[in-house]
Amino acid sequence: MGLLVDTEYLDFQLQSGYLRSIASPSVTLGVKDFSSLVGRSGQDLLMQVRNLTQTEKTFAEITAGLKKIEAKKYHPDNYLPLFRQDIVPLLQYAKEQRLLLAVASSTALNYLLDILDNCGIRNYFDLIVSGEDFESSKPHPEIYLSVLKALHVAPEEAIAIEDSSAGIAAAKAAGMDVIAYEEKRFLIDQTQANLICKNMRAIFCHIKSLRK
Question: Where is the chain membrane-spanning (predicted)?
Answer without folding.
Answer: none
